[in-house]
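Record 1 of the preview.
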Amino acid sequence: MLPFEQNEVDVLEDIVETDVYHLIVFNDEVNTFDYVIDTLMEVCEHTPDQAEQCTIIIHYKGKCSVKDGSWDQLVPMRNEICRRGLSAEVLN
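->
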C-alpha cells in the first residue's frame, strides 16, 4: 500500500456524520426591519450585512434560514428569538 492510500483511509475513518438543523425565522406584520436586524445580530451573532440580508429575505419570501447547526446549538437561539416576539422554528 502506498503512503497516500493509508492517509486517505485514516481520513475517511475520521468522518462523523451529524444532523444539521436550520433555524428558520418567519415574517410577520408587527416587527420592524431594524428590530429583526438587531435580534439576528444579538442572538445569532450575524454581521450587520448578514442580518439585513436575512431580514429582506424574511420580508419578501416569508421566511429565511438564518443559522445552521446542531439541535442543541439552535434551540436556545430559537427560544430567545421567540421570547423577543418573532416566530421561529428549528427544522431538519
